[in-house]
Amino acid sequence: MSFAEKCYEIFERSVDDYHLREGKKKDAPNPFGADTLEYCLYEKNRVDSLQWHLEDRMRAPLIEPREALEVKRRIDALNQWRTALVEQLDDRFAEEFRKIPCAPDAPLNTESLGWALDRLSILAIRVYHMREESMRYEAGGDHCAECVRRLSLLLEQRDDLVSAIDRLRADVLAGCRRVKVYRQMKMYNDPDLNPVLYRKKKEE
After folding, report:
1. Angle 46-47-52 (CA atoms, 0-180°, nearest 5)?
2. 11-29 burial, b for 16+ CB within 10 Å, e for fewer?
3. Out of 23, 30, 41, 200, which could bridge 10 as a Cys pair, Cβ 3.0 to 4.6 Å?
4. Cα–Cα distance, 49 to 22 (Å, whole number)
C-alpha cells in the first residue's frame, strides 16, 4: 500500500467512525497516538466531517437566525482548526524533507503535500455521501443512477489524486521537485487583523 493509499484509509476510517457515532454527545475518539502522523490525519478528517455536516445544517430552509449564527461561528472555528492541522502536516513533511539535497533547477510545486491531503480528506467524505445517495432507493431510479455515475467520477478523481500525491512525495524525496510551507494567516478570527473586531474593541 502506498503512502497516499494509507492516508486515504485513515480518512475512510474517520468518516466511518463519525457516522457510527453521529447524534451522540461525544465524537469518536482518535485511535492513534497523539504524536503520530496517523493521529494528525485522523484528526484532520474528523474536523472536516464535523464541518461538512454543519454546512448541511446551515442550508436548512427554516433554520432560525440564532441557530444559523451559532452554526456559522462553529464552522469558522473548525475552519481555523482545519488550517492549523494542514500546517501541522506540512511541518512534519518539512522536517522529513529538510535534509534532502534538491536539484538547482527543481521546480516549485504550487501546492504543499498537506493541502493535497486536505483535498483527499474531503474527497473521502464526498465519496461516502455519494455512495449513500446512490443507494437511496426511495428517491427513485433516476436519482440513484445519476449518483452512481457521479460516484464513479469521484472514485476516478480519488485514484488520480492518490497517484499525484505519491508522485509528488517521491519527487521531493528524490530532490527533483520542491515544496514550501506557507502559512495561511487567516484574518477573520484575529482581533488585531479583522477591522470589525478591532474597531469594536476600540469603541469599548
Report:
1. 100
2. bbbbbebbbeeeeeeeebe
3. 41
4. 10
Cβ atoms of residues 30 and 42 within 8 Å: yes
125, 48 in Cβ contact below 8 A?
A: yes
Provide the grid cell at 17.
467512525
**pTM for the predicted model, two decimal places:** 0.89
| pLDDT given for residue 22 in this prediction | 74
Please report which confidence band the pLDDT of residue 5 belongs to, taking 50, 70 and 90 as the band edges.
very high
Instruction: Give me the residue spans of the domains in the chain.
Output: 3-195
CA distances to 115, 126, 129, 189 from 154, rounded to whole Å, are 18, 8, 11, 33
**DSSP reduced 3-state for 108:** strand
The model's confidence at residue 180, banded by pLDDT at 50, 70 and 90, is confident
Cα 6 to Cα 14: distance, rounded to the nearest angstrom: 13
- Of the chain, the end-to-end C-alpha distance in Å amounts to 57
Contact 57, 68 (CB under 8 A): no
